[in-house]
Every structure is written in C-alpha cells, then in structure tokens.
Amino acid sequence: MAEPAPTRSALGAVAVQSFAPGSPRVIVAGATGFAGALAAHLLWRHPRFELAAVTGRSEVGRRLDDLYPRYRVPMTIEQLDLEAFGRLDAAIVAYPHAAAAPTVADLRERGARVVDLSADLRLSSPATYEQWYGKHPRPDLLAEAVYGLTELHRDRIAGAGIVANPGCYPTASLLGLAPLARAGLIADVVIDAKQGISGAGRAFDDTTHLSMAGENILPYKVAEHRHTPEIEEQLAPLRAAGGAIDQVAVLFQAHLVPLDQGELADCYVTTTRAVDDAELGELFAAAYANEPFVEVVSAPPGTREVLQTNFCRVFAKADPHSGKVVVLSAIDNLWKGTSSQAVQNLNVMFGLAETEGLT
Questions:
Q1: Judging by DSSP bridges, how do beta strands 294-296 and 251-256 pair with one another?
Q2: Domain 169-333 has CATH 3.40.50.10860
Q3: Residue 168 is a catalytic residue
Q4: Where in the chain is the domain with CATH 3.40.50.720?
Q5: In a 10 Å sphere around its CB, with 0-12 CB exposed, 13-18 middle and 19+ buried, how is residue 74 labelled?
Q6: Mean pLDDT across the chain
Q7: Count of H helices and E strands in the chain?
Q8: Which is catalytic among the residues 168, 180, 327, 334?
Q9: Domain 7-143: what homologous superfamily?
Q10: What pTM did the predictor assign?
C-alpha cells in the first residue's frame, strides 16, 4: 500500500503519516472528544497502523489539528459513513454509553475489530448495566466483548473482535488490587480516587467549570458511582482464583481535583490475614515483573510521574496499626486510563509489540 499524499498542517508544515505498507487501516469514531482526539494522535504517529479517517458527531468539516492544535493530526473530521471508508481493519469508538454499541455492531458487520471506549460492553450482565446506565442498546454484543484491561486479559484480547476498554478509575484500581485479589487477600476494600477535570470530558458544567474546580476538591456520585460494579465484576474471578468465593462489596468514591490530567486511586484493603511489607513487595514484584507498563515503586507515586504516558505506578504498604494494606495507583486518566490503553489493546489484537507507538 502506498503512503498517503502529504497534507499541510494548521501550522504550515508538511505532515505525512508514516506507516508500514499493508498496515491495518483504523478509524477513530468520535474524534472530537478528549479521548477520541488523543486516540487519533497516537494512531497518526503509530508506525504500524494507518489512520484512515477521523469522524465526529459535531465539528464535521473542521480539521482535527484546528480543534486540537497540540495533537497535530492534519485530517478533516467526517461524518461516520462506513461505506465511504473502504476496507477497515479496526476502529476505536469514542462515543458516550448507549450511543457506542450500535456503531460497534455496524463495524463488526463489516469485519472490523473494535475497541470501544464507552461503558456499553464492559459489564457482562445486561441487568447490571440497566441498573446503572439504563436500557442496554445492544445486549447481543456482550458475549463477544472482552474486557480490555490488557494486563489481566491479554490472551483473550489477542483474539477478540470487540474489546471493551476499561474505565479510567477501574484501570487504576484494578491494577493496584489485582495482586492482592489473586492471592485471596481482600476481605474488604475502600477506594478513594481523585481525577483531573479532563475526566469529565468537553461538556463543562458547574462542577467542572474552572471557577468551581480551581482551588477545590469535589466529591461526586457519592455511594452511586457507575464504575463500582465494573470493579466488583473484575475482582470476583481474581478472588475466586485465590480461594476467596464470596463477593466483596466495593466502596468506591471519586473526587475531581484541580488538575488537567492525572488520577490517583488510594485503595484501603482489609486483608484476610496479616500481611507485612516484605510479602507485599514479593507479591507485587512477581505480579508485574514482565509488564511493560506497570511499575512497582518504593515510594508513593504522584500523577506527574505518569503524565502523558501509558504507565501505571503502584505502591503498596502494610499498616500494622490498623491491620490494613494501603495501595496507591497513579495513571494519566486520558492515556493509560483511556486512549493509550486502547492503542495498547490494538497492538495486542494485531500481534504487534505491545509497546509499539507508546514509548
């Protein structure tokens, strides 16, 4: 396949996507939102994928590098018209919940493999979905979808037609808790999570407006956050593998903090037996020794350490006074929490090096 003709960026420089001949052709549906725009940026510079089109439900006809100059993707935002795009091998769908699943279905009918950034296909139970989100638009797709936390489900993701990219809060929380869950050590957990205002997307309201978010910490969705069942569902088989059968009811609380990007999940775990720092160190080191994007660190991580990367930094500490374990997990909510994890999953789906285009 010949390389695309040069196009001129908004800054006047000639910009050409460089990709290998015969590369999989990928579109980003919903490229006008924060997650979709970043996904387009990562695919535009990816050496092994061809970014075939960027689409939007708004801003049609506008250049993406005009809407998001920092990403410098010199492509025009188009209406989603799958017939017009020719052969498509894959897509990242960055639509809100309920709007995403019908588009995923259309793409699958045309043979494209899909990474869905919405919540539509993350939960295996239609009843659970409807409890938290409302009527499910395409429950027939649930059996095909694989939960896309790469470090937990890599083997299944490799052969998947649909990958349900995790929420950002579950990504940080589950990477922090997985080693303990697999060892059967979680009796109870409270997750106290903080996130920058980019996690609320482009649609600002009174809570995400600068005058409210600046110099402030805002709890939201108290005792009703939609990521709670996602975390519980993913913890259950890990705990079962570790010999713990009963479900743990997760207490999850989210906060907006005055950052652009970044997320820290503080997990307070009541363990099933006493655990010391030496055992924790061995447990986490073994769990993530071969994971390219998870770093087990010896000091509490901050969000700046993972800004604009696909890395997650995890720290675990035993508290002899309370008998609990504290696990801190830091990610960039737009990168590892959303878009770069989607590209990590695409790499796995197409048999590429997992780090391709991400380091």
A1: unpaired
A2: no
A3: yes
A4: 7-143
A5: buried
A6: 92
A7: 10, 16
A8: 168
A9: NAD(P)-binding Rossmann-like Domain (3.40.50.720)
A10: 0.92
